Structure formats: structure tokens, C-alpha cells
């Protein structure tokens, strides 16, 4: 069994011009009847945002933006701290790298100093 709502929707699809005329008639009746007009306006007003609602929403959004700015500044400070730490670590690594190169050069010089005389004796040049 088809519901009344389904029948009405089918009629609206099948006869759009008659449906429009019916809607105009209902709208005219509502506009002409003070009780219906007030009921409709009250229903609409309940769903309408007031200036106060908008001001409260704006204040809430401003608070959220301020919180986000604070979080952003905190993160910026943390990033700067990490950059400083990274620079210090890089300085230390460069220093260690120079020490390693220096020790390798000294080791090579020592090895050459030891191996060269042995090689020269073995070849009979010394």
C-alpha cells in the first residue's frame, strides 16, 4: 500500500504546474492568516543566527586563532632550538673529522717512516 506522502510526491513529479499553483495557494493562505504567519516566522527565527550568536562565534574563533598562534610560536621556538643543536652537532662533527684526518696523516707518515727504510735496505739502496 502506497503512503500518502509517496502519492503526493508522485503527483508533484507528474504535474509540476498544479503543484506550483497549490504551493502558491498555501503560501497565500499563510501570508493572509496572522496566526499561521506568526507560526512560520517564529519557526524561521528559531533557526536564524542572531548578531549575538555571530558575535559569540566570532569571539570563539578569535580565541582558537590566538591558541593556534601561541602553539605556532612555541613550535617555532622548538624548531629554532633544534637548529641550534644541529649546528653545534655539525661543528663537533667537523672538529672530529679534522682530528681523524690529522691522525690518518700522522699514521701514514709513521708507516712511511717505518716501511721506507725497510724497503730501501731490502733493495740494497741503503
Short description:
The chain crosses the membrane at residues 96-120. With 126 residues, the protein is mostly helical. 91% of the residues lie in helices and 0% in strands.
Please explain how this structure is put together:
The protein is an all-alpha fold and 126 residues long. It has a domain at 1-48. The protein contains 4 helices and no strands. Helix 1 crosses helix 2 (16-32) and helix 2 crosses helix 3 (34-47). The chain is elongated. The termini are far apart. The mean pLDDT is 91.
Individual helix count: 4
Fraction in helix: over 70%
Shape: elongated
Distance, first to last CA: 121 Å
Average pLDDT level = 91
Q: Give the radius of gyration.
A: 44 Å
Q: Report low-confidence residues grouped into runs of 5 or more.
A: none
Ordered list of secondary-structure elements with their pairings:
Elements (H helix, E strand, L loop, with lengths): L3 H11 L1 H17 L1 H14 L3 H73 L3
Main attributes?
126 residues; 0% strand; elongated; mainly alpha
Amino acid at each position: 500500500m502506497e503512503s500518502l506522502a509517496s502519492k503526493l510526491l508522485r503527483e508533484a513529479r507528474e504535474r509540476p504546474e498544479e503543484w506550483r499553483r497549490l504551493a502558491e495557494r498555501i503560501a497565500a493562505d499563510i501570508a493572509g492568516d496572522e496566526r499561521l504567519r506568526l507560526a512560520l516566522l517564529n519557526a524561521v527565527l528559531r533557526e536564524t543566527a542572531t548578531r549575538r550568536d555571530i558575535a559569540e562565534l566570532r569571539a570563539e574563533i578569535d580565541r582558537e586563532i590566538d591558541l593556534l598562534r601561541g602553539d605556532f610560536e612555541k613550535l617555532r621556538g622548538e624548531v629554532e632550538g633544534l637548529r641550534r643543536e644541529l649546528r653545534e652537532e655539525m661543528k663537533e662533527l667537523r672538529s672530529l673529522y679534522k682530528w681523524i684526518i690529522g691522525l690518518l696523516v700522522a699514521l701514514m707518515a709513521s708507516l712511511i717512516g717505518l716501511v721506507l727504510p725497510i724497503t730501501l735496505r731490502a733493495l740494497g739502496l741503503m
